[in-house]
Amino acid sequence: MTRIGFLGPPGTFGEEALRTQPDLVQAELVPIRTMLDVLAGTQKGEVDLGFVALENSIDGTVNESLDSLIFERDVLIQREVILRISLHLLVPPGTAMADVREIHSYPKALAQCRMFLADRMPDVEVHAATSTAEAVRYVGEERPPHAAAVGTALAAKLYGLEILESEIEDHPDNSTRFVLVAPNGSPGCVPAPTGHDKTSIVCFQRADRPGSLLSILSEFASRNINLTKLESRPTRRGLGDYCFIIDLEGHVADEVVADCLRNLHAQLAELKFLGSYPAASEHAPALRREAEASWQAADAWITSIRDQIRR
């Protein structure tokens, strides 16, 4: 059975996101202490696949995951999964709001309900945990006095807590993008094109000079390739030295994308390929069906023309 590592313990948003995927939920889901350990374990073969958060619509990039993908690990993205995030204030049964004096959760989760905590619980002590589920497990199993946790409804069920306040996140449109990764070099480690795909790359400049980013972006503009993400990260080689993380529409199997990457590889100091994979959106299945139908119609058209070639 395929083993998939995710940020544990059971009950995290990562597990919730995994459980939205009918094929992945059939695998053995392995909780791992940190997302860095998930990626390390995937590359080392301790699990077959890894599943980590990459960015949040409110807080932005999950730097520990992205930096590990860029600088530390040789894995390729297999798919992306987007999960709507709902944060709940969880307490032992019978606990009232006035009884709570400390709150435990993952720092990014606490940041996403900052206004609720400031307005409703301004004097409560805040304690960081390695994940939302770890915070809920601690409160549920250890039962520290006057403690609550911020976490998922799934974790509340697993660890015997009640939802005192539901959906306490400050912004209703709160979503997290997760990615499934596999070791680079493993069989079929680049998924086949589906007609609605993304490709992720990292561009390292030869030198910091005027127009260097423009020259990179012109490769996409000249081929009418749409970018869905552009971000810079320090290269760890010195102040002011940055690389660029780019997500683009299309698959490396597409000739226009391959031609673009070929040119970039020739002009840059380094171009790291992070994967070509199915894009996630509520309209993705319809878009893939439309792309397949369009390709089949185009193939039939070109075949009809070739059939007229004089022999």
From TrEMBL:
The lineage of its organism: Bacteria, Bacillati, Actinomycetota, Acidimicrobiia, Acidimicrobiales. Signal peptide: none annotated. This is Prephenate dehydratase. It comes from uncultured Acidimicrobiales bacterium. Residues 3-183 form the Prephenate dehydratase domain. One of its GO terms (biological process) is L-phenylalanine biosynthetic process. Coiled coil: none annotated. It catalyses: prephenate + H(+) = 3-phenylpyruvate + CO2 + H2O. GO terms for cellular component: cytoplasm. InterPro entries: ACT-like_dom_sf, ACT_dom, Chor_mutase/pphenate_deHydtase, Preph_deHydtase, Preph_deHydtase_CS. PANTHER family: PREPHENATE DEHYDRATASE P PROTEIN (PTHR21022), PREPHENATE DEHYDRATASE-RELATED (PTHR21022:SF19). Residues 201-278 form the ACT domain. The record marks 176 as: Essential for prephenate dehydratase activity. Gene3D superfamilies: 3.30.70.260, Periplasmic binding protein-like II (3.40.190.10). Its EC number is 4.2.1.51. GO terms for molecular function: prephenate dehydratase activity. Keywords: Amino-acid biosynthesis, Aromatic amino acid biosynthesis, Lyase, Phenylalanine biosynthesis. Pathway: Amino-acid biosynthesis; L-phenylalanine biosynthesis; phenylpyruvate from prephenate: step 1/1.
